[in-house]
Amino acid sequence: MQHLYTGCPDLVSLRSQLMLHLEHNTDIHVHIFSNFLCKQWREFIDCQAPYFVMASDEGLNSEQTCFLNLLILHTLGNQINVVLTAGQDSDNLRVFGYRVCARFHHRKYLQEVCDDLSLVRRHLISGSDIRTLVCAISCSMTLRIFNEKQMTPQGDGPFMALDEVADLCRMICLKEALMIVLPLSQRAKLRLINANWNTEALLIINVLKRCEVFALNHLRTQSKMGKSLNWTYISNLSDDLLLKNIVYYCEKEASSDLKTGEEIDQMFRQIWDTTLMLSRLSGNQLQSYKPRTTTTHFLSEDAFINVNGGSTQSLGLIPVRSDIIDDYAGSIVNNLAVLSSDDPALTSLSQAKSFDELTHWHSRRPLSDDYDRTKCEPIKDAYALRSYQKFQTFQRFYGKSLGMSIAKHIVLKSSSTERTQKIPKAQEQKKETPMKKKDKIIEENLRKTRALEEKKEIEKWKSRASSIANKINCDIFFGMRQAEQFFSSLQSKSIKFQAQFLALEACFAQWVNHCKKNKDTETRDMRIVVEIIKLIQTIVNDHQALSQSEDQKKMAPFLNHLGFGNLAQQLQCIQVTRAENKESKYAVGVGSSRFQMQYMGPYLKKDDRADADPRIQHFIPDTWQRELLDVVDNNESAVIVAPTSSGKTYASYYCMEKVLTESNDGVVVYVAPTRALVNQVVATVINQFNKDLPKGLALCGVFTRDYRCDTLNCQVLVTVPQCLEILLLSPHRQAWVNRIKYMIFDEVHCLGGEIGAEVWEHILVMVRCPFLALSATISNPEILTEWLQSVKKYWKLHDEAEERTLVQKVSKKKGLKAERKSDRVRLVLHNRRYNDLEKYVSSVEDGEITFHHYHPCAALTIPQIKKSGIPKDLAFSPMESIKLYDAMVTAWPEWPMKAALDPENNIHLKDKLAITKRDAANYEDDIKKEFTDWVRKGLIDKVIKNSKKEIPHKSTILGHVPSSLQKNCQPHFPKLVERLRQLDKLPALFFMFDIKLVETLAKDLGENLTKSSEKTQTHKIVKEMQKLQIKGKQIEKTIRSARKDEPFIKEAIATNLKQKAEKISKKSPECTYANYGAVDSETLREMIEKVKTVRNSEELISLAERGIGYHHGAMDYRARRFVEMLFRMGHIRVVTATSSLALGINMPCKSVVFLKDSPYLDALNYRQMAGRAGRRGLDLEGNVYFFNIPMTKVQNLIKSNVPELKGQFPLSISLILRLMLLATKADDKEDARAKVLSVLKHSLMSFKHPIETQMLKMYFVFSLQFLVHEGYLDTQCQPLELTGLVTHLHYHEPSNFVFVSFLKKGLFHRLCKPSTKYPGTFPDSVMYTLMLVLAHLFGREYILSQKMKYMGTFFQSKVFLEKLPDDFAAVVEEHNQKVALIFGQCILTASNLADLEEKYQLPLSNIDFSGKECDNSGLVDHLTSSSEGRSGISPFACLSGNTDHDLMTMKNANNMMLATIQISQKYFPFFYLEKTDAYGRALHLNSYALDFFKHGSIKAIVSDNGFNEGDAYYKLKDFYLSISAISVSLKEMCEDEYDPVSLAFEQLQKKFQQKLILVK
């Protein structure tokens, strides 16, 4: 589509250079298409299924804009997501276009140039630089074009003599020679030429750029010539600043006649000679090597050298003293300049009062800390107590849906130790004492009781025997389920054996009949044989002690008839005769091992341990689970990585039990990433444990941002990371923190997330007690464990030093013994799911839903296997292992390992009556290893070449799967759900990343069931229902007027009528997905009552009654909880959801369905969501279905590893202020100091990265400078005045600093003038302006510029936020100037620590542009004599004329600063009054908060402001919490209780709260 940019040849050239650079210097595969309607593009999107297409919505002209919009519409129409470049930080642009005619008619020259290139090819040396050839070709073509134009002049354009054109071409050749010889370090020092090209120069350059594009495209297509060229520096063809320097020198400074240098001169002559050879032109002036032979000017007349005032002056540091600074960043501070004591910047520092969290600096009134200012209502009255009781009652009810039984009563060890220790002795004495007469009588009675029970079972068996056989004969599968329930109720082994053997005979009879009806073995139903083998395995396993060999001999014929003679021989070593060993007509046709692997995978026996662990009563833990118990018992820490539903969370509750039994003081903190998970854990704890505690203490507490209950007086605290950080950094909560005995971090992989990841890091490094870190999705747990181990070693050294000091102080006291803590951090890995996970790809064929099994090995590619092998977490089911073996045998019949890996001969599987899961896993490892060897040793290429077959794992394994499955899921969704129900694959979760689609699909499914129900209802049923309703209404009217006992009678009649109506109206199974037997009607009614007040309650209830629900993060938490509970309890069996169910929520199901592709559907979310499939103890296997997901995306999801955990930037200015507040005001200074240093020293980002460590130290030092300069700290790092308010609003940085600046400048006091008419209140105009200011600070939601033209008419909202008042905007500008000055200097200082090697490397290809500088060229010295500072600027950015002066403005700093500095611009407290997108279009703030304050309508926020209703409510709630925090803080801090600012914020808070309550 390069011709779309005919008017911009420089862009076409850059586009071509980029494509060639990516093609030759990186591993990226470049595709080129003529337009988006061509066949190649269609094949590309079908086969590759890109995650998204990045495009601009606006071009350089109307034609480009139209084309781009068509491309976007076409992309979206093909179900591919579009990412607009305007919303990105990157400026990359890649658009596929159509052909347009060229402006210059020079095609006749192209063939001549192509012929001339053959001359170049003869003299071309292998490895020649692409830059010299492209420059020569483009310049020669330009000369020939202008030469022809002189001969046949046309048009009104300016006439250019050939010699004049040659001058500019020579300068371009000289520029190219300089680019080849000079390293990037010298080119980055070029002078800044402030000039534009004149008309003549632009004409020549445009022609030259078009010729450059032709040269690149031609060289690309010439494979012979292309292979002999060096494409490394294809990205370095242009340097406009260097060319302007050369032209400026030639036009205005050539009198100095500076020497170019031998190497440069030689390179220049070579390029120019090649140019003349290709141009076929001659002339004396053309032959000259002087850059300029004419007097023509190419730069504008006003050209000059731009000087930005020289180098940026160094900013001296304010001397700041603190032990923290000395210990952490002393080496940095010692190397920086410090201001003298008489410097004006130092003497002008404000002498503010010291801030103390205990008392106000004037009134000595108690002040609360950050923890106390969270929302908390203490239990003071009866109403609050009743609410607390309701909360506890509901949590117990909620816990029942989680499968909780009777709570375990916790008894302190101190009260039971003596009794426990005496029990073994009593037992030992009892064994030695002879049995007494009483005991003999008891034993005899028990024997008689057992005999009587056995007699009853015999009678029971006699009565049920025939019915069991009949049920099996009618329906073998239903009959066997009934029979298994009967078997489990039997206690007598002999009766159980008879029953099982009868069922075995009945099943085999069914198989015989089935074989007679189906002569073809391929059409036989192997599920019948599965039932037979299961029975035989059960009988052998349950009755191993049977001494009668005749009983075992009875089973041998069954195995012989099935063709499993090898298994028959195992039963008492029975010798099978030749006749019996002969192939039976009832044989299954495969060996016993293959049959079990291929058909019985879900039923294979698990390798569960049989020996009980005394520490766990309700189940027998596996070996890896026992290791977790050992970790807790030894007070160690552990990182636990195990699949979802594998049983890793139980260690958390064992840990809680341990702490609860030790004392009433110890605390366990459970950290969960979301409030939903917090609620789930709280309900589990309350239902699992019960303990008698002293008055004032609670078993379980909660702490979230908007809810707090029993936080500091509980033994098990469940919280979110942000709230725990508040407690850990609170100066006066250290006594409580010291009570923590264990911490549990659930979903610890959130440490690598984008939002809030640094908070996880902070609390992990401040943990002194042992901890458990749980996750199912960490790809590099070894690195995480090593990092956490380094933190533990730090705390061990600190504790040892602290203990030595303590012992020295109290050495005379006896009995002092410090608590020992282990510093060991174990890594516990378990990579096996409890059950297998089968994957299926869905398709629509002839209007019907079809499922195709997808083998995970089919997702792999040969390069991937060669590089990293088969991913560790890519598990095969037994059937999939057999399929891979068969595919390999088919591809290579002479395979040497064929016999060894044959299931019938393999050492793990051979002749086993009951293959176990461990046996299957061992066989899987063997087959994977062999296949990996095939690929790495090149055997697979040999196989393909010799057999002329496709790769086995791509064809034979996968079978037939449609190539494109992208359909609109909405019309097919009801059929998809119905198909899953027919296959008994419900309950199921249906995942997508579209809130609107989540709700729409659930509603459509409900409407579909309603229509089906209406069709099934007869006229008679409808008429009877109407009669019952009329009678019910009549009785309800007479109840009030009835006398004495009559109301009770009539109420009973009314209840009876309702029950009859429910019975009549009960939906048929075909018209509902609900399981009505799962929840009793009273419980269901109670749950419905609890959600009647939430948004869209009628819709939720109506869907729930039909077994349908939807779930997303924008819903009210009560509505989400309602759906979760009914799904867990089994009533709801179909739930559509977003990723709100991905993080830890207990929602196990039989099947998981991915319905729609999205960029958010990545490897991490896939594993979190797919892990829900397969309920432990209920389902033999889990099922994952892909519908409307491209095949390439399916492959990527299955084979991709989850992202590695990488440290985020851990610091912010608010955090540093909070750390200094903790260090200076803590009750225990030494403990606080250790925590602060741990946070600063142990960031994951700087772990084993010394350069990053230095960068963080630099950021810390300059952040302190900002805090001191702005008056939040004094020079001793003591917090001052408004520190408390800033730290409390830390999650709104930099708005918190700007808000305090408004306070300091007195803007709020000037604004908040009380009403003269109503004293103590403020007029609406004040409230409006106050809201406007706060909306700019705490409600910053931008509206993308491209969205503005499609927003339509607004009815109630203004939508676009007004600008800040001028006086407030002036303060913001002043704030920004200070930030730019201080942190600009931070970048410049940090640049000295940058990695010099990476400084001159391209980030993707790692091409190095460093080299030896040229020191023998006067011209180079002259052109690079710039005096502007460029130490903090990337040398690549310097080529565009940027200097340190530009960096100090903090505009576009991310694109200019050195990449190795690794301090993003967002970590500088720069507050943008105006913001633009990548194309300079203004981005407006959404005025949702101000609009809601005016009209109070959530519907208007949805329709006008463009939010989802749920998202709108939560954003408004967050905004309200910010207002509340400010109001409470100001009220505490103000000495005058009638301070107008405090009163104004209090009035604003109440008004906003009233409006928010109305929409709740």
Strand content: 5-15%
- Counted by DSSP, the helix tally is 63
Determine the oligomeric state from the structure: single chain
Task: Report strand order across the widest sheet.
Answer: 12-11-13-9-14-15-8-16
Give the overall form. globular
Q: Give the fraction of residues assigned to helices.
A: 40-55%
Overall residue-averaged pLDDT value? 79
Largest sheet: 8 strands, mixed
Short note summarizing the structure:
The protein is of the alpha/beta class.
Please explain how this structure is put together.
With 1560 residues, the chain is α/β, with parallel strands linked by helices. Among the domains are: 1-103, no CATH class; 107-307, no CATH class; 437-589, no CATH class; 636-807 and 822-831, P-loop containing nucleotide triphosphate hydrolases (Rossmann fold); 1317-1363 and 1477-1560, no CATH class. 51% of the residues lie in helices and 7% in strands. The chain has 63 helices and 26 strands. An eight-stranded mixed beta sheet has the order 12-11-13-9-14-15-8-16, sandwiched between helices. The protein has a seven-stranded mixed beta sheet with strand order 18-17-23-22-19-21-20, sandwiched between helices. Strand 25 (1475-1476) and strand 26 form a beta hairpin. Mean pLDDT is 79; it is low at 89-110, 356-365, 415-431, 576-581, 812-818 and 945-965. Pfam families: DEAD, Helicase_C, PIN-like_DDX60, TPR_DDX60, WHD_DDX60. Residues 629-796 form the Helicase ATP-binding domain. This is ATP-dependent RNA helicase DDX60.
